[in-house]
Write a structure and sequence with these properties.
Blueprint lengths: L6 H9 L5 E7 L5 E7 H8 L3 E4 L26 E13 L6 E10 L10 H14 L3 E6 L1 E6 L3 H6 L17 H6 L1 H13 L4 E6 L5 E6 L2 E2 H21 L3 E3 L15 E7 L2 E2 L12 H12 L1 H8 L21 E3 L6 E4 L7 E4 L8 H17 L25 H9 L2 H7 L1 H19 L4 H7 L4
Parallel strand pairs: 1-5, 14-15
Antiparallel strand pairs: 1-2, 3-4, 4-5, 6-10, 6-12, 7-9, 7-11, 8-9, 12-13, 12-16, 15-16
The structure holds adenosine-5'-diphosphate (ADP).
Length: 454
């Protein structure tokens, strides 16, 4: 069930006064919901067909800057409009806000109404269409890990992001007592999202002080990405409503474990799991072997889409459950790719590289493209690794910095063929800009280290 409201449901709820506000949102390059709050009467009368936004929204950064170097828009071209076209299949209640519904929009060219190629939803749809042409459907689940802090966002910002207090006093991995203490936030998150039409499975404490995980049932890839974006947004809003802060920064402190977003993936044909072969090793079909071989071979090319910021790369540290190597293993949490559900119809691959800051549309699209390439080229899967993969000197490393991942993205012939030069040039510029912004800043670390002693 992608949404939980039909357009007719919405109209009758607007008429009887239950809904007065409709959020029309699209997902930006950073994975955020951006858009407008409509008076519901205006939405059901006219704006359900389309609305507009400035085209800089798909060429900006977390600070809403206007970087140069994007072919799609600029000061020179006058920063015109895009069309936001509501996808009414995503219409849903927003139970944590009074009288409010939400719809996700596709972003279209203002003049031609063609999909904007670098918009994240269009990028994922393009790879889903390629997979469908091969006769398969992808089902995915993205785990959402994050930290909860005692203070509010405003208090944290006013204190200069100092003295952050995680909401718990100890590592709360699978901890029922500690997570009971957090039910004031986590229970509304689960229940409001469920009431919004998201198939919530569970939440649990994660392997660090104040760290949480939310799991949503695996779904067709586009629904999965929609769910992820809505859930991430809701987690922040619900934490804010409770006077607390939720953070998806992958590594908020160098001595703490980071937050990830593992992506579980399987392909299906005619409603049956195409990754399952009861007679094969691990129950893994030949198709699954090709798909995983593509994922592994091209992981350095698409790492940027799993780790898009400077901070993302601080997570890839030995002995933290975050991977450092692009190898696969059976139910082994030290490898980049973990085979789960061995020997069952639920056999699937979990990519463990992505951080909690990934954009789910871009991450899933890039991995689908790699899997498709593996299938098309009939790539063979290298043998599984065993033991502590952190210590496997022969295994290929994940790019260790944003600079390195930008280079592999820029030079990826495979991604250019799968997604198009325009898209790859656009995201390469996005990656370069992030690096340029960081490079010009003098950090606290440099000052403390060198001020007196250098
Ligand atoms: P973990 O031990 O990593 O928490 P879980 O058993 O909780 O593993 O499953 C993690 C995620 O995998 C869940 O969100 C679940 O919906 C998803 N999942 C289960 N089966 C499949 C499948 N066949 N394809 C893709 N995802 C799946």
């Amino acid at each position: 069930m992608p949404g939980n409201l039909t357009f007719d449901d919405l109209k009758s709820r607007v008429t009887d006064g239950a809904i007065d506000t409709v959020l029309a949102c699209f997902v930006d390059m950073q994975g955020r919901l951006m858009g407008k709050r409509f008076h519901a009467v205006n939405f059901i009368e006219t704006s359900f067909a389309e609305t507009h936004c400035c085209n800089y929204l798909l060429a900006t950064d977390l600070e809403m800057a206007t970087p140069d170097g994007y072919a799609s828009t600029s000061w020179q071209s006058g920063y015109g409009d895009y069309v936001m076209q509501p996808d009414l299949a995503t219409l849903r209640l927003v139970p944590w806000l009074e009288g409010t519904a939400m719809v996700l929009c596709d972003v279209l060219d203002h003049h031609t109404h063609a999909p904007v190629p670098h918009s994240p939803r269009a990028i994922l749809k393009a790879q889903i269409a390629r997979l469908e042409a091969l006769g398969f459907e992808a089902k995915m689940a993205t785990e959402l890990e994050f930290f909860l802090f005692e203070q509010s966002y405003d208090d944290i910002r006013k204190s200069g992001f100092r003295d952050l207090q995680p909401i718990s006093g100890y590592n709360e991995d699978y901890h029922i007592f500690q997570t009971t203490k957090e039910e004031g936030i986590m229970r509304p998150i689960r229940n409001h999202l469920y009431a919004a039409g998201l198939p919530i499975e569970n939440s649990k404490g994660e392997a660090e002080t104040g760290q949480e995980e939310l799991n949503i049932r695996y779904s067709p890839a586009l629904d999965c990405a929609d769910y992820h974006s809505i859930a991430k947004h809701a987690i922040k809003e619900i934490a804010w409503q409770q006077g607390r802060a939720a953070s998806f920064l992958p590594k908020w402190h160098h001595d703490r474990v980071g937050s990830s977003s593992h992506v579980h993936q399987s392909l299906w044909k005619d409603g049956e799991p195409a990754f399952f072969d009861p007679d094969a090793d691990h129950g893994m079909s030949t198709l699954m072997g090709h798909y995983m071989a593509g994922l592994i071979k091209y992981a350095p090319d698409y790492t940027f889409f799993l780790a898009p910021y400077i901070n993302s790369y601080k997570r890839f540290a030995k002995g933290t459950f975050a991977p450092t190597k692009t190898v696969w293993s059976v139910d082994n949490r030290t490898a980049g790719f973990r085979l789960c559900g061995e020997g069952t119809k639920g056999v699937r691959v979990e990519c463990r590289i992505g951080g909690s800051d990934l954009n789910p549309y871009l991450a899933q699209a890039a991995m689908l493209a790699a899997g498709i390439k593996g299938i098309e080229d009939g790539l063979s899967l290298p043998p599984a690794t065993t033991g502590d993969v952190y210590e496997d000197a022969k295994a290929q490393d994940i790019p260790q910095t944003l600079r390195a991942a930008t280079q592999t993205l820029r030079n990826s012939a495979f991604l250019r063929e799968a997604m198009g030069d325009d898209v790859i040039d656009h995201y390469t510029r996005c990656a370069e800009w992030e690096q340029e912004e960081f490079d010009r800043v003098v950090t606290d670390w440099e000052i403390a280290r060198g001020f007196e002693r250098a």
